[in-house]
Amino acid sequence: MSQKIATFGVIGLGYVGLPLSVEAVRGGGLKVIGFDVNQGVVDSINAGRSHIQDITDAEVAGLRHQGLLEATTDMSRLAECDAISICVPTPLSKTRDPDVSYVIAASEAVAAALRPGQLVVLESTTYPGTTREVMQPTLEAGGLVAGKDFHLCFSPERVDPGNETWTTKNTPKVIGGITQACGDAGAAFYERFIDTVVRVSSAEAAELTKILENTFRAVNIGMVNEVALISDLLGVDVWEVIEAAATKPFGFMKFTPGPGLGGHCIPVDPHYLSWKMRTLNYKTRFIDLASEINTEMPNFVVGKVREVLNRNRLSVNGSSIVLLGVAYKKDVNDVRESPALDVLKLLEADGAEVVYHDPYVPQWKNGGVMHQSQALTDELLEGADVVVILTDHTDFDYARIVAKSKVLVDTRHAAAKELPGGGVDSWIVKG
Ligand code: SAJ
Q: Hey, which of 15, 300, 329, 427 would you mutate to test ligand 1's pocket, going by the most ligand atoms within 8 Å of its Cβ?
């Protein structure tokens, strides 16, 4: 059946869906119809432009020119697709519970167009059970049966934004079906354009695999952030300790402390598992503790700003602070869940006058206020009471930042190499 698949539908043309679409055309000889509710995204792709950092305009324009990629908001055209992947957001609600409304909306659109022989795959990170408990009933409502009339699988996305080494094509792809026949069909399909397909026995196993991957990161980042808090109390340089531990050639994996946990994956996905386990009366202690420590880090960073202002007999109130980097991690333009949001709010709550510079984020809407990235002039650095490095973008000129800043707090250990003698402590580089 997988060889008969000629037209591939991708719902959600974001950092997962657009690269998946491009790879399916390039490697799988497929024609792709991309579906998105955002007319601007659809128009941009149909005009041969990419709104995603990892895909160039030329790649989109080339596929458009060959007539192998088109985008639409018309969900009825899902009937034209032999295979459909759902790559929509799975955020947390305001009450920090899973919000699977986008998955449900996409499932309902697929159900309305479902026909025998189609393959449907959910890629959005979600709690174990979503595919079988939420998607399957929605898709079977019209009388077709999963594993018999159509196939239904879960296959987690593993896109690492900005990672040029590991791409959609060469990152191993895990997949599990509602039935074995579903898994067979899904694996055979992805094998047409993804180098390595890893088959697991069920949709639940695939869903939990992804949550394990991201929980592993959240918990280890939480652990290393706690080591940073401990080192600060002990007067030990946490960066020195981590570098030394990382010399161990086995049994250790390096994670680094920072201003907190950002992105729309790592701070979010483990809470999908916590929520699911609460429904089974189980408390996911590691996830909850890691979250407690990670969400403490912005406050710790602001404490360092207060500390260095105090050393200079200045109050936070009325001080001028420059944040360098507001994206959630280096070399990306995404500010979702960025710890910079929390640092800004805490400093402004104390009356500080805060501006930012981030070449990846020309403007930044925060709390209804639109902030503009300031040009990184000598005057900006020299005029600040405190400069705070929040995101260690590769192309920052750290030597200049150290030279021109009177007082510098570095939350990423990015500028330390410019001060061989070391700073005041692991965080206050100049003060
Ligand atoms: N962070 C630290 N210390 C670390 C590593 C990361 O503070 O040692 C912070 C980062 O600054 C960032 C957050 O954690 O704010 C998350 O960073 P991340 O490196 O986990 O990257 P994400 O969220 O962009 O994407 C991750 C993917 N990244 C890596 O594996 C390196 C991957 O786990 C998933 O494919 C992706 O989440 C996803 O979509 O689930």
A: 329
Q: Using the Cα atoms of residue 343, residue 239, residue 225 and residue 303 in order, give the sign of their dihedral.
A: negative
Comma-separated ranges of CATH 3.40.50.720 domains in the chain: 7-201, 215-430
Domain 215-430, architecture per CATH = 3-Layer(aba) Sandwich (3.40)
* Sign of the torsion angle spanned by Cα atoms 337, 343, 345, 346: positive
Closest residue to atom 12 of ligand 1, CA basis: 262
pLDDT in tens, 140-163: 999 999 999 999 999 999 999 889
pLDDT of residue 420: 80
Beta strands in 214-339 (DSSP E): 320-324
User: Positive or negative CA dihedral for 283, 289, 294, 298?
Assistant: positive
pLDDT band at 202, cuts 50/70/90? Answer: very high
Top-level class of domain 7-201: alpha beta
